[in-house]
Design brief:
InterPro entries: PsdUridine_synth_cat_dom_sf, PsdUridine_synth_RsuA/RluA, RluA_PseudoU_synthase. The chain contains 11 helices and 17 strands. By secondary structure, the chain is an alpha+beta fold. Strands 7, 8, 9, 10, 11, 12, 13, 14, 15, 16 and 17 form an 11-stranded mixed beta sheet that branches. A 4-stranded antiparallel beta sheet has the order 1-6-3-4, sandwiched between helices. Strands 2-5 form a two-stranded antiparallel sheet.
């Protein structure tokens, strides 16, 4: 086989290739490396690197294809999941079909996969070039017996992504400290957010910290650089319980939507970051009409929802500087009040207007942009637990 020229996954490119995800059902017993190379005509060295990055996943039984699946993919799914076929596979005895469809990472290129195994290969994993620009030792805030506190840089992932666990804060902090056991993720902040993150030394402390979060013993304070002023006090919204960005929030209670609350403790006027500072931190220009003043807010996060601060502040007409996902929709709402079907100037729909309402929601979602690739105006400036017995602060935010 003549393989195309291959330059390795490292050094890291400064850009991301277009997404490419391949779905395979193994047709014959084989080593996973050999099978992927043959099926996709990829160099063995490249596939080995993908496995190291955590970009190859398997399931004993092929999961249900998505609505976008081709007729051929649907045909193969029906063929390999027929009850008569599954009965012959000893590896799934004692498991329900749903259990057998759960995906796991392939960790070694010499792992053996039997016929009928499902493989998902992220041929173009999402990359994080920022990881290679950081002096990681300088970002370590504290090292204790059971945990490490990191001042996470913007543009990095705390624990990795579905297709890339190599280029993560946990991996690079582990190396910077010369640890033999990898650090474990205890909680998340967005890739575009910087600030305090706790990484566990052991699985035991990871469980302990998770318990502290569940019992609301962990307190997080944030600095937010908003594009408009905000009043001090508690802001309440309700978030749509769909695990998909953008996160939609409503000022009025909606059945089964999740409560979102934050407290603006302080809001002060500051200069909008200079062009030089924005370029240095790759902050995106999202079209906010006035760029002379910004507003630095100190926020106590009372509930910890994904994108909560970003979505709530945008809903208040004060999106975060550089937030390419939420600011474009806020700009559109500013120009044409009423576009947000959950906002202050929303139209009230009746049961006869259900189709119009669904169209308005879809159009509102379409006004949002893509997830920022680098810094936005948000820092997890302080984290504490056990009633302040343990408390840590991040350094100055990028905009100061």
């Amino acid at each position: 086989t003549s393989y195309p020229e291959y330059d390795r996954l490292l050094p890291c490119p400064a850009y991301n290739f277009p997404p490419r995800v391949e779905h395979l059902v193994v047709s014959e017993d084989a080593k996973v490396l050999d099978y992927i190379c043959k099926a996709l005509d990829l160099p063995p060295l490249f596939v080995t690197d993908l496995i190291q990055f955590g970009a190859v996943h398997y399931a004993l039984v092929c999961p249900q294809p998505p609505p976008t699946a081709t007729p051929e993919q649907i045909r193969v799914f029906k063929e390999v999941t027929a009850p008569s076929v599954l009965k012959k596979r000893g590896c799934i005895k004692g498991k329900t079909v749903r259990e057998a469809q759960k995906t796991f990472r392939i960790t070694r290129p010499d792992e053996f996969v039997e016929a009928g195994t499902y493989l998902r290969i992220h041929v173009h994993p999402k990359r994080f070039p920022r990881c290679y620009e950081i002096d990681w030792k300088s970002r370590i805030i504290a090292v204790a017996d059971s945990y490490v506190v990191l001042d996470k840089p913007a543009g990095t992932s705390v624990g990795g992504t579905t297709d890339n666990i190599e280029e993560s804060c946990a991996t690079f902090a582990t190396r910077a400290l010369g640890l033999t056991e990898p650090l474990k993720t205890t909680h998340q902040i967005d890739n575009c957010t910087e600030g305090c993150v706790v990484l566990a030394m052991t699985k035991e402390y990871c469980s302990i910290f998770h318990q502290k979060i569940r019992e609301k013993q962990v307190k997080k304070l944030y600095l937010a650089l908003a594009s408009s002023p905000l009043p001090t006090g508690v802001i309440t919204h309700y978030m749509r319980p769909i695990n998909k960005a953008p996160r939609l929030v409503s000022e009025e209670h909606v059945d089964r939507w999740q409560l979102c609350q934050l407290e603006v403790m302080e809001c002060k006027e500051v200069p909008w970051p200079s062009t030089l500072i924005e370029e240095r931190h790759c902050v995106e220009d999202c079209g906010w009409p006035t760029r002379d003043k910004a507003y630095e807010c100190r926020i106590n996060l009372l509930t910890g929802r994904t994108h909560q601060i970003r979505a709530q502040l945008a809903a208040c007409g004060a999106p975060l500087v550089g937030d390419a996902m939420y600011m474009p929709a806020a700009v559109a709402e500013l120009a044409s009040p009423g576009l947000n079907p959950f906002g202050k100037h929303r139209r009230h729909y009746t049961s006869n207007d259900e189709d119009d309402y669904q169209v308005a929601v879809e159009e509102w979602i379409a006004l949002h942009g893509k997830e920022p690739t680098s810094a936005i105006g948000l820092q997890a400036c302080q984290i504490s637990w056990d009633e302040g017995e343990y408390s840590y602060e991040a350094g100055s935010p990028w905009w100061r």
